[in-house]
Amino acid sequence: MKQFTSLAAVAGLVSLVHGHGFVSSPTPRYPGSAFEAACGQQAYDTETSDVYGNIQGMLQVAESQSDYNAAECNAWLCKGFKYADNNVTYSYTAGETVDFEVTIHAPHTGVANVSVVDTSTNTVIGSPLISWSVYASVSTGVAANNTAFSVTIPDDLGDQCTTGGDCVLQWYWYAESIDQTYESCVDFTVDGSGSSSSSGSTGSTSSASTEATSSTATPSSTSSASTSSSATPTETPTPAETSTPAETTTPVVTPTETSAAAETTTPAAVATSAPAETPTASADVIPSTTFATQLRASGSVSSSTGVATSVSIPTNASAEEKLNWVESVFKYLVGNN
Predict the structure, then answer these.
(1) Which H helix or E strand runs over 321?
(2) CA dist., res. 265 & res. 136, Å (int)
(3) What's the rounded Cα separation, in Å, for the pair 69 and 73?
(4) What phi, psi does 73 have (nearest 5°)?
(5) Predicted TM-score (pTM) of this structure
(6) d(CA 47, CA 78)
(7) Is 250 exposed, middle or buried (CB count within 10 Å of its CB: 0-12, 13-18, 19+)?
(8) Average of pLDDT values for 206-212?
(9) CA distances from 247 to 26, 201, 282 (A)
(10) Cα–Cα nearest to 79, from 177, 185, 151, 179
(11) Tell me: the pLDDT tens digits for 255-280?
(12) Where is this region: Disordered (predicted)?
């Protein structure tokens, strides 16, 4: 009875751990019927109840289910969220500034970037548009430029992103200390000639736009202001069963300010060659590939459970990280009894 009470207490604590990060603007992909068909009912229920959660947590639930299809789910691209479930595709021009807003519910020190990703291969095109060697720090808290920042659309994409669904702006955050990955994807198109183009889908385009001035964080003491013009979203038909919230087809870009926090952000220069490693101003180099590649190369985590094969007590960790450690020990004990 005593053991049952202890286990129940641990389970209760684990249930208090909520998801931690997701892009709020521009409108990203959300889970819908296509996601449910590929990743299964349990994954769909998990994401529709809390879209801010990490990929590892979602897979821990989904992988044991009979309706989970790993290849079709493709969880390491946009968290498995599908273009077919999306009803907003933005039309940008080369050199255009795009303002981002990210909601972070709890900090976990890690690295992050925003990149143009080829969805057919799940690879970064060129270099990340902006990157952080320290992101959502537990010791200093979430800096202002972790949640409000701008990126510039590259001018060397050619014809790679002329069709809706071919490319995304992917926000990627990996908290290595607790092995948690967060992703959000914004669908967009760029005309090969450098002028605005409509989405590859059959939605209507709103002509209204709003211009605002924003500051982009830089790794040096010199800051450069750039003028941001809001993108014109193109609506695409939403599947009948989708749970995607109704979106506004004319997102208004608001001014953002650059934080002077300790974190260093590195807006990358436009790449003119094949995909390359992430350039940063410090010795901490951020990989330009998505976390899927890192995970496949890592042998430190069990693929079936997501629990580390060796256990060390995180005495200096935050309360949130200790909770995650308790959860992993609990699952290990249950799985071996």
Answers:
(1) helix 319-335
(2) 12
(3) 6
(4) -65, -45
(5) 0.57
(6) 12
(7) middle
(8) 32
(9) 10, 16, 39
(10) 185
(11) 333 333 344 454 444 333 334 344 34
(12) 191-282
What HEC string does 172-223 produce? EEEEHHHCEEEEEEEEEEECCCCCCCCCCCCCCECCCCCEEEEEECCCCCCC
Question: CA 177, CA 171: separation in Å to the nearest integer?
Answer: 19
| Structural domain boundaries in the chain | 19-302
Task: For residue 328, name the pLDDT band (cuts at 50, 70, 90).
Answer: confident
Peptide bond between residue 267 and the one before it cis (omega within 30 degrees of 0): no
The amino acid that residue 107 corresponds to is P
Question: Which residue shows structure tokens 């992993």?
Answer: 328
* Rounded Cα distance, 115 and 124, in Å: 6
Residues 18-56 pLDDT 10s: 559 999 999 999 999 999 999 999 999 999 999 999 999
Token pair of 186, please? 């914004």
Encoded tokens for 57? 């947590």
What's at 88, amino acid-wise? V
Length of the chain: 337
Dist. CA 154–CA 169, nearest whole Å: 11
Q: Which residue has the tokens 């590259």?
A: 154
